[in-house]
Design brief:
alpha/beta, 37% helix
């Protein structure tokens, strides 16, 4: 995870989710609709990468393994720009409910898909924020270096770094109805400005208005 140390705080800037994968997982993608053309990849991501380059900030993009098949060139482009590409499940599965065998299968599939692109992942963020009882052992076995679940404090677990995020530092907390958010970029902006040492989580598909994108730009400038 790429850390930005400033006079007041150390911030890990991260992005979660890419493309239509979550909609596919939830059965929300229209039948027959083309794949590999999602606006969060074709429109939002280029703006994000340009802003990161302008401010000379490196970030971590946690993306689902299926994106290695849907957007291989995009993942290579992210890495070529100096950013880390981490794993975020295969199709954004509800991670904490997985049985150990299924969890192993999805992790191994994701590692193999990324590895085929020359992007061997060393970081993992569980979709939904929660790990299973088997997660840490599986991640160590598969040679991951750190994991970023929901939580409060950084720790080290037998060689595996746990670098958590807090929900109040996630843009979705303020925008999505499932979190009862106010849909208020101003509230998210205030949370970013007051974050201190934190892991910030943005979602490309939620940077869909100029007002929302401005919060990211202000975070980069700050």
């Amino acid at each position: 995870m790429r850390l930005r140390r400033q006079a007041r705080a150390t911030v890990a800037l991260t992005f979660d989710n890419l493309g239509e994968v979550t909609a596919l997982q939830r059965g929300e993608w229209p039948e027959g609709a083309p794949l590999g053309e999602h606006w969060s990849v074709t429109e939002s991501l280029p703006r994000i990468l340009a802003a990161l380059a302008e401010h000379e900030v490196e970030a971590t993009f946690f993306v689902e393994g299926l994106n290695a098949e849907l957007y291989p060139d995009t993942l290579r482009e992210i890495a070529a720009a100096g950013h880390e590409v981490g794993l975020h499940g295969w199709r954004h599965e509800p991670w904490s409910s997985l049985e150990p065998a299924r969890e192993r299968e999805l992790l191994e599939r994701g590692v193999e898909a990324f590895d085929a692109l020359g992007l061997r992942p060393v970081s993992f963020r569980p979709p939904g924020g929660d790990l299973t009882p088997a997660s840490l052992d599986l991640l160590r076995e598969l040679r991951f270096e750190y994991v970023s679940p929901a939580g409060d404090s950084v720790s080290e677990r037998d060689g595996l770094i746990v670098m958590p995020f807090r929900w109040e530092h996630v843009d979705a907390w303020y925008y999505l109805p499932k979190f009862d958010g106010p849909d208020d970029p101003a509230a998210w902006r205030a949370a970013v400005q007051q974050a201190g040492d934190a892991t910030l989580v943005f979602h490309p598909f939620l940077l869909d208005t100029e007002e929302r994108f401005a919060v990211l730009l202000e975070a980069l400038a700050h």
